[in-house]
Design goal:
Layout lengths: L10 E3 L2 E7 L8 E4 L11 E3 L2 E7 L5 E8 L2 E3 L7 E2 L6 E5 L17 E7 L2 E7 L7 E4 L2 H6 L3 H5 L6 E5 L5 H5 L3 H18 L7 E5 L1 H12 L6 E5 L18 H13 L9 E7 L5 H13 L4 E6 L5 H6 L4 H9 L3
Parallel strand pairs: 12-13, 12-14, 14-15, 15-16, 16-17
Antiparallel strand pairs: 1-2, 2-5, 3-6, 4-5, 6-7, 6-9, 8-9, 10-11, 11-13
Helix pairs in contact: 4-5
Length: about 325
């Protein structure tokens, strides 16, 4: 990519976003915006003196993650110094007017110790702020939610707890797509091992994002007395009607079959845990999350709900930890 020269960088200007890419020699043939949220029907940049430019009205978002598609190659915006990292590499990041990152991020890095374990082929790292009895928070996609979602930093702002960061393994989709073998290993092997190694108060709370949220609900649905609470962020609660675009997914039938089972239930099992759900307002999963929320409430479950004006990103999940996870932990671990 060439250096940004006289062309101004991408910026929010008045009530619009102006995307700009420096290309003084007009060496590129086609430049577009890539984003996981719907911005406009045509995201092609037009040629201007010094490069390429596209003006879009401000989206109904708190912040935007995007890439440039330059002649078929996805790259961050070289003129925008703000980036967020993720499992698929860095994305350019642009805050909208009024956005503020969570205040709890401003605290010092959490102290404490980390211990690695492997139980039933599930790798994990347990963070603890110190010794003694305390509750346990389990986190699907744990290393990623720690690195990109700062979940341990958030936990360190709360009353003392341990955080078990569970790895998804090399076959994440197979493990998290409503897999009975994984649910059994989590409940029958991982939980006893952790509560045996660490003095634990209360039943654990399980946190998951996307497919990890589906796996969390599946585990609790099959073993409702194993957890005190579930935090489900942007869960992949696919249905054939709401999510036909996912029909090519290799585990679509298993996922939709489990969701159909939940939706057909007339009552929840005794001791089914309390649930907190969050979702981004720009996500494809928003509709299926709202439908599941309403049904769980009809079954008599306590289900809190939160929306953030973001897409299906780690920033969305980080920003919705507070107050939703904190409130869930207070309710479930104070009885």
């Amino acid at each position: 990519m060439g250096q940004v020269s006289e062309l101004a960088p991408t910026a929010v200007e008045d009530d619009a976003i102006v995307f700009r890419l420096s290309d003084p020699e007009h060496a590129y043939a086609d430049v577009r915006i890539w984003s996981d949220v719907e911005l406009a029907s045509d995201l092609s940049l037009g040629r201007v003196d010094g490069g390429w430019e596209l003006t879009l009205g401000l989206p109904d978002l708190d912040c935007l993650e995007y890439l440039f598609d330059v002649d078929g190659a996805l790259v961050p915006d070289p003129g925008n110094p703000h980036q967020v990292d993720g499992a698929f590499g860095p994305h350019s990041w642009l805050p909208m007017p009024g956005y503020q990152s969570p205040a709890w991020l401003e605290g010092p890095a959490p102290a404490g110790e980390r211990h690695r374990h492997t139980v039933a082929d599930i790798d994990m790292e347990v963070w603890e702020p110190g010794p003694g009895p305390m509750p346990l928070l389990l986190v699907h996609d744990g290393a990623e939610m720690d690195r990109f979602g700062s979940v341990v930093r958030y936990a360190a702002t709360r009353p003392a707890m341990r955080v078990a960061l569970l790895a998804p393994g090399v076959e994440r989709d197979e493990r998290y797509a409503a897999n009975p073998a994984y649910a059994a290993a989590l409940v029958d092997d991982v939980l006893p091992a952790l509560t045996g190694a660490y003095e634990t108060t209360y039943r654990p709370v399980l946190l998951g994002q996307s497919l990890g949220a589906l796996a969390a609900l599946h585990a609790a649905w099959t073993a409702p007395d194993a957890f005190d609470g579930l935090m489900l962020q942007s869960g992949s609660f696919f249905t054939p009607v709401l999510d036909p675009q996912e029909s090519g997914y290799s585990h679509f039938d298993r996922v939709t079959g489990f969701v159909a089972t939940v939706m057909a239930a007339q009552q929840a099992a005794p001791r089914t845990p309390e649930v907190a759900m969050t979702c981004g307002t720009a996500e494809e999963n928003l509709a299926n999350n709202r439908v599941l929320r309403d049904h769980l409430r009809e079954l008599g479950l306590a289900v809190s709900w939160g929306e953030v004006r973001q897409g299906h990103t780690w920033t969305c999940w980080r920003d919705s930890l507070h107050p939703h996870l904190g409130d869930l932990l207070t309710r479930t671990w104070s009885a």
